[in-house]
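Reading a protein record of the kind used here takes only a little practice. The integers have meaning only within a learned vocabulary of local backbone shapes. With that in mind, consider the following protein and its fold in token form:
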Amino acid sequence: MAFMNKFIPSEKRKLSPNKYEDIIQNLNHILNTKKEYGGVLRDFGIRDLNEFNNKEGIIKIVMDEVVRNIQAYEPRLTVQEIESVDSHSLFQLSFKIRCMVKDEKKSLNMVFDSIMNSFLIN
């Protein structure tokens, strides 16, 4: 929770014993926040998608928003690739995101699925 830790007084700041858990927790905060509802940061989070009426438009915007937010608010990661995963449901959005943990040169692979409400990391 690197970004959010900046707002916690240092004497109360709890350091995560696992760096990957900390990154995942931070990603969870970033990607589950609606844009303009993230406190003082107007561009933090994913924008409202109600204006779109087709799945392709939503997929493109969500992928752009995910990359923008990771680049801006999770400095320990570099996004290498993001791609949508085909689904037969009109209401399902699935993405594969491949990131590099900067100081370790290790890959972090994530799969997001809106129907299953899951976020898997390999």
Remarks:
- The first strand starts at residue 77 and ends at 84.
